[in-house]
Design goal:
Layout (H helix, E strand, L loop, with lengths): L10 H8 L6 H15 L2 E4 L3 H10 L4 E4 L7 H10 L10 E6 L6 H9 L2 E4 L2 H4 L1 H20 L3 E4 L19 H11 L5 E8 L12 H4 L3 E4 L10 H22 L1
Parallel strand pairs: 1-7, 2-5, 2-6, 3-4, 3-5
Antiparallel strand pairs: 6-7
Helix pairs in contact: 1-7, 2-4, 7-8, 8-10
């Protein structure tokens, strides 16, 4: 089945496709390995986080990865960090939410599909009311993918943080709804906060260059194996847990 045109008007076909799309894991591994050599991220863990992450991965628990968002380079540096971290075994089994405009070019869509992307139609781009139905479907698809054993990676701030790279910005409720819907399907997602820092930014509104994005600091918090039962509570937990991880990433830079 060929990939559909990723437009809001075509969202039904889009999510029909991404409900079951599976990339070639060998190609994904190769791409992640190349990015790891190119970006050379540095990985740190909270006390006990490395072994706890290994354990939940061995148990094949579906991971809900929360990552702070600093620049357009993040998808590449995050992929590089996944290769160099305890996430390597799940490469090819994690769906990554990405804004729809990244799927506009067919060649770029092919690359994002290979990396496990799922399009997100954002309210800030199309209007809150216009994206409501598509957003509901997207969250259902993510929950279904988790019920099938996949992880889901989310930048829960929703957009690049150009205010203060040391502070997690407001977290939308979407990540909470994804976890909540997965729970309704009988799944118990494990929250893994994966924070990154590109170092001190004199002007946070200026995105780091590709060269400055190299050797980013990544810090993993201790996986949270039991999540609250309400979307809002989950979202609040995500922000608190991700901030702790971000503090660690900044300190380790």
């Amino acid at each position: 089945m060929p990939p559909p045109e990723v437009t809001l008007d075509n969202s039904e076909a889009v999510y029909d496709f991404y409900r079951s799309h599976q990339q070639n894991r060998l190609k994904a591994w190769g791409a992640y390995a190349v990015l790891a050599r190119r970006y050379r991220p540095r990985i740190s863990y909270a006390d006990g986080a490395r072994e706890a992450l290994r354990q939940v991965v061995r148990q094949r628990r579906p991971l809900l990865l929360a990552i702070n968002h600093l620049s357009e380079h993040d998808p590449y540096t995050v992929a590089a960090a996944a290769w160099r971290s305890g996430l390597r075994p799940v490469i090819g089994r994690v769906r990554v939410l990405a804004k729809d405009e990244l799927f506009a070019d067919p060649e770029q869509q092919r690359k994002i599909d290979m990396m496990g992307g799922i399009p997100v139609f954002r309210g800030k781009d199309h209007g809150i009311r216009a994206v409501n139905a598509a957003g509901q479907r997207m969250m259902d698809i993510c929950a279904q993918r988790m019920a099938g054993g996949d992880g889901v990676a989310v930048f829960p701030e929703g957009t690049c943080n150009d205010i203060d790279p040391t502070q997690v910005q407001p977290v939308g409720s979407g990540i909470g709804h994804i976890a909540f819907r997965a729970q309704k399907l009988g799944v118990e997602p494990v929250l893994v906060s994966m924070a990154l820092s590109y170092g001190q930014r004199p002007d946070p509104s200026v995105s780091p260059t590709k060269e400055e994005a190299r050797s980013a600091s990544f810090y993993f918090g201790v996986p949270v194996a039991e999540l609250p039962s309400k979307p809002g509570e989950i979202a609040r937990l995500v922000r608190t847990d991700l901030q702790r991880a971000l503090d660690g990433a900044v300190a380790a830079y």
